Structures are given as structure tokens and as C-alpha cells.
Amino acid sequence: MAALGTLGMQYDDVPASPVICIQDAYKSYGSHQALAGVNLSVYPGTIFALLGPSGCGKTTLVNAIVGRSDLDAGSIFTSLKDLKEIGFMPQDISLFTRLSVRENMRFYGYLHNLDADEIERRSKYLSDLLALPPFSRCPLNLSGGQQRRVSLAVALLHDPKVLILDEPTVGLDPILSKNFWDRLREMANQGKTVVLTTHYIEEARQADRIGLMRNGKMLTQDTPLALLKEHNTDYLEDVFLALCYQENNKTSRKISKEETSFSKVRTFEKPKRISLSRIKAQLLKNFYVLKNNLVLTIFGLMLPFVLNICAKIAFAHDPYYLPLAIVNEEFPGSVENCPRTFTNSCILSNPEMMASCIFLNELKNRTYVMVNDFQYDLALIYISAYTIFQSEVMNSSTCK
Ligand SMILES: Nc1ncnc2c1ncn2[C@@H]1O[C@H](COP(=O)(O)OP(=O)(O)OP(=O)(O)O)[C@@H](O)[C@H]1O
């Protein structure tokens, strides 16, 4: 906890050895205060359960720990050097549902800079440890419990020192939930530190320490036994109820953002957004996505060709039978009078006439219907009549 020394002042009485220590954490979303001065200490090799009803701020707190969001104020200290020492399992299972379990493992393995052999070795170990479903299956077709176990395996893949799990047991049946806790206990016994959130009060009994949260505040944090003893009951629900009543009787004032902006400290930086391992993992994932959707991939590749051919068929043809009259005051007489070839002397003697003739000769070679020798106003009348007549003819015949 080197960073504590550098801060000095109000943090002198913080215990010396927590892996994670949060001091006076505040976070607001608009006018809603999600965290209102939370303090938390998590010790190595223990399971810490953050317990509280829906909306009390548990996810906000764990998101702040793993760097997914920033606190408005407060300090987060860890003894970890790097965020990579944390394995995080978010509430919304972060698996690619159309990639197989193996492909998911590889993606996250590469993201954590593991090589292919290491990913294979760790995957096998975790498969045995967590009784994972076959690696060829896609999360889309797995049960909620299986998905959660795969998600936990992904969080454990790089062998992190600290595990942070957001609602890991939601939707699990009691047996799966029990297995889950057994695995967590084994890991804690091996020295890993676990922070998890839950709103199942009795489940939290299995943790080493419990933090009871309500309305963005930490009501208390202690071992389950100490809490039960202190409130003279056998049920954590009674403890929570008693603490909620106590909280209700306190007059609490909403604290403004300005009042809480005294300190904002993190002891590790967020990881770089662009890194070689990220690029490698993203490329691999995109390759898997394309491979697993062959129809879509072929369609995507063929689409430009198909569009090109359609455009070629539909657009940019010479118009057929389009009546065209030109009022040309530079060149008297019919286009038939135009010379076919021009000599230099001709250009010099009458350049306008030559330009007109070149233009008119060029038009004659096209598919227009040239309308000759008309006065301008008569030409317009003729064109209108001709267009009507032509559309009638075109409708009644199959012309090219
Ligand atoms: N991005 C957001 N924008 C606005 N309000 C938010 C946002 N995230 C959370 N909140 C609000 O902050 C409060 C705490 O939310 P949080 O998700 O931390 O609760 P929780 O205890 O994890 O709930 P749950 O157990 O249902 O996941 C809630 O009232 C929620 O509506």
C-alpha cells in the first residue's frame, strides 16, 4: 500500500495489508447518488461479499474498482501493480455467444497476452476445475449456469490474484450455486482474493467478510459470525433489517458533488486502449465470427460484385429513340451539309462551324433521333408530339 504513505493525511488509520481499500467513494448519475461515501477493505486470500438490494450501488462500486467507470470522488488503493492482476466477471456475461467456448477462451487468452500453448493448458485446467461444457459448444446453446461457469473460467484464464465477480450466482439453481461457492472457497484457500456482489442474503454467509450496502452507503462490514453475534440472531436477514431501521432513523443529507471533490486517487492506471495483444485478439475474434457465419460471409463478399453487375445492367446506357433538336445559330443549313473531314485551312477560316460540325457528326453516330431543319419553337412542339407518339409505340411493342 505504498500509495497510502504518499497521501498521508486522513488515511493513516487504514489497515496495512488489504489488497483493495476504498475510501470515501462518491458517484452520482445526474441527480441520483449511486455511492455516498463508501469505505471498503478486502484482505488477501478471503472472500468478500458485497450484499444489498437491487440498485444499492454494488455494480457501480465494482466497476470503479476494475476501472470501468471513474468515481466522482474518493480513493481506491490496491497492492496490485497492474489491472491485469484482476480477473473480472461482469453481471452481463461477457461471452461471444456465437463463438465456441474454445474460441472465447482463445480471444480472452490473447487479450491477456497468453500464448496458444498457455491458453490450451489453462483452459484444460479450468475445464476440470469448473466442469465446463464441451469446448466446441457455443454459449448461445448453453444453460445460464453453464454460461456463468464459462464466464468465470474466462475471468480466471490469466490466473489473476484477485477475482471480482458481479452477481455470479444469479439464475443458478441451489446445487450449481453451492458448487460455485465450493470452487471460490478452494481458490481463496489457494491464496486468491475474491470480491463478489450478491443480493441473496443467506448465500453471503459463506463469505469471509460481508459488506452490507443500502442506498449507496456501506451500512457495515464484518465477518458473518461477528454480525450475527452483534445482533444476537441466527439470520443475516435480521441483521440487515436491523441495520436498515437504524439507517432510516438517521437523518441523512444528500452530499453535493462540490463537497466531495476533495480527492480522487487510483493506484493503478487503466490499461492502454490500443495494444498489440488487443489488436491480435480482435483480429482473431473477427476471423472466428466470419468463419462461423459462412453464409453471411459469402453474402458479404459477393454483395459488391452483385451490386456492380446490377448497376452495369441498369445505368449508363445511351438513351434509345430520344428525339433531339439542336438550335445552332453558328451553322446554317442541315447537318448533312457538314463536311466529314476538316483541313487546317477550314479550321482557320471558320472555327465555329467546324466545332458545330464535329458536335453534330458525333451526335449522328449515337442512338438519338435527330430532328433537323425546324424553327426553335416548332422544334419544341415537334419534340413533345414525338415523345407522346414514341411512348405509345414503345408501350405497344418490345423495342430494345
Ligand atoms: N449509467 C447509469 N446511468 C444512470 N443511473 C445509473 C447508471 N448506472 C447505475 N445507475 C443507477 O445507480 C444506482 C446503483 O446502480 P447499480 O447498478 O450500482 O446497483 P446494483 O446494486 O448493482 O443493482 P443490481 O443488483 O440490480 O445490479 C441505481 O439506482 C441505478 O439506477
Automatic annotation (TrEMBL):
The chain crosses the membrane at residues 294-315. Keywords: ATP-binding, Membrane, Nucleotide-binding, Transmembrane, Transmembrane helix. SUPFAM superfamilies: P-loop containing nucleoside triphosphate hydrolases (SSF52540). Gene3D superfamilies: P-loop containing nucleotide triphosphate hydrolases. Residues 20-240 form the ABC transporter domain. Pfam families: ABC_tran. GO terms for molecular function: ATP binding; ATP hydrolysis activity. InterPro entries: AAA+_ATPase, ABC_transporter-like_ATP-bd, ABC_transporter-like_CS, P-loop_NTPase. This is ABC transporter domain-containing protein. It comes from Bemisia tabaci. The lineage of its organism: Eukaryota, Metazoa, Ecdysozoa, Arthropoda, Hexapoda.
